[in-house]
Structures are given as C-alpha cells and as structure tokens.
Design a protein that fits this description.
The chain is α+β, with helices and mostly antiparallel strands. The chain has three domains: 51 residues, Roll (Structural Genomics Hypothetical 15.5 Kd Protein In mrcA-pckA Intergenic Region, Chain A), CATH 3.10.290; 94 residues, Pseudouridine synthase I, catalytic domain, N-terminal subdomain (Alpha-Beta Plaits, 2-Layer Sandwich), CATH 3.30.70; 79 residues, Alpha-Beta Plaits (2-Layer Sandwich), CATH 3.30.70. It contains six helices and 15 strands. Strands 5, 6, 7, 8, 11, 12, 13, 14 and 15 form a nine-stranded mixed β-sheet that branches. A four-stranded antiparallel β-sheet has the order 2-1-3-4. A hairpin with a 2-residue loop joins strand 1 and strand 2. Helix 1 crosses helix 2 and helix 3 crosses helix 6. The two termini are 18 Å apart.
Length: 241
C-alpha cells in the first residue's frame, strides 16, 4: 500500500494532507525518514509520524456534527482555541471532511476514511453543498444570474453559487444556496461582493448527507443507509477514474 494511502487510512487526514506530512520529513519507515509518498508499505514496516507509531485502522467510521458558531474546524489548534473535536466524545482518531469557518454552523462530517474524504472535498468531483443563509435584502433576477455564472471574490479567485429558493421572513431574507467548489469562505466572499449583510450561515447538506433535525452542538454516527450513499459516491468516482 502506498505510504500516503497508509497514513490516510490510519486517520491522519486526506491523502493530500498525508503527502504534506511526508514531504515535510515528519514520517519515518523502519527508522529512516521517507520522503516518497509512493513508498510501498508492507507487512512488518514500522511507520511513525514524529514519534507516534501509525497503525492502520480497519474499522471505518463516519459521524455527522451540527457545528455551533465559535469552533474552528481542525483536529488541534496551537493557540488553544475551541475546535470541533472538543464536541465529539470518542477515542477514535477522526478528522473533519473539509472545513466550515469559525462563524458558520451546520453539517460537518468527521471520519477516519481518507479516500472518501478526499473524494468528497476534491473540486473535480463537484460534490454539492447546500447552505441556508439569512441576509438583509432579496436577490434580483440579474443578481441571481450573475452569481450562477461567476463572480470575482478576490485573491485571484472566482466564485459561483446557485440560488435554490428565497423568501422574506420578518424583515430578513432566507436563501438556500448550492455550490460545488467549497473555496475558503466562498459564500461569505460572494455575499460581500453582492453587498449583502449576513446574519446567519448554516450548511444543511453535503453530498448525499442532510443535517435534518440534529440539535446544534450534537453529533451522531451515520446510519447504514447514509454510509451506503457515501459508498455509492466512492464507487461512482472509481468508475470515472
């Protein structure tokens, strides 16, 4: 098994994140620093990340968390800020699938399965994400078309989002938005360009998984049906490759 895949399957992030760990000279195999992500790990090899031995995890696990505001999406934080891992009571080594910024709430998946996490987050796979955003003004038709085409969001990046629905509610506007890229703070950057004030931003769907009525700050294991849906995405991706 490739070294980056071995690290990913052991719960240390996606395969791309494993590549960074390897190229950063933090991984040793049988006592020697290994810089090649394609190194073939065989039975008996002792793989360490810094001073911690990496043991392949066989049990696959996905959980869904309704992330509250004020928590950052990372496993550890050097500044001792609150992370999403503080909300998950488990001894298993899990990591977040993608990110939600500190002030955004809603659906966040955590897993120990690097391959599936990579499929869900890689831009080429165009996995849909649906957000519910509360703003100050309704969108006009030409603005909806502009956002669905593309809009410059700064830092030499372009964003794109579809308006699925919008309605007025007690002086504010509730909008359901769909995007397929998940660039850093993409919706907030688009709303800034569209001169909209955001009161609340919540992710309610990621791929085939929906938030439903899971209370804020709580988590649960994915059901067998939900796990099968993720397996279907993985199977579809393997056929495309």
């Amino acid at each position: 098994m490739r070294l980056n895949k071995f690290i990913s399957k052991s719960g240390f992030g996606s395969r791309r994140e494993a590549d960074k760990l390897i190229k950063g000279a933090t991984v040793t195999v049988n006592g020697n620093v290994e810089l090649n992500p394609a190194y073939n790990v065989i039975d008996g090899d002792k793989v360490y990340l810094d001073e911690q031995q990496i043991i392949l995890q066989e049990k696959k696990r996905f959980i869904i968390l309704n992330k509250p505001s004020g928590y950052i999406t990372t496993v550890k934080d050097p500044f001792k800020r609150k992370t999403v891992m503080d909300l998950v009571n488990t001894d298993e080594r899990l990591f977040p699938v993608g990110r939600l910024d500190k002030d955004t709430t809603g659906l966040l998946l955590l897993t120990n399965v690097g391959d599936t996490a990579n499929i869900l987050t890689h831009p080429r796979n165009k996995i849909e994400r649906i957000y519910k955003v509360e703003i100050d003004k309704i969108f006009k038709d030409y603005e909806i078309k502009r956002m669905a085409s593309k809009i410059y969001i700064g830092q030499k990046e372009w964003g794109k989002v579809e308006v699925l629905s919008q309605k007025r509610d007690r002086g504010r506007v509730i909008v359901d938005l769909r995007l397929f890229q998940g660039k850093k703070r993409e919706i907030r950057r688009i709303m800034y360009r569209m001169k909209r004030k955001i009161f609340d931003l919540r992710r309610i769907k990621f791929g085939p998984i929906e938030l439903g009525d899971l209370p804020i700050g709580k988590w649960r294991n994915l059901s067998s049906v939900e796990n099968k849906r993720l397996d279907s995405i993985k199977l579809l991706n393997s056929k495309r490759a």
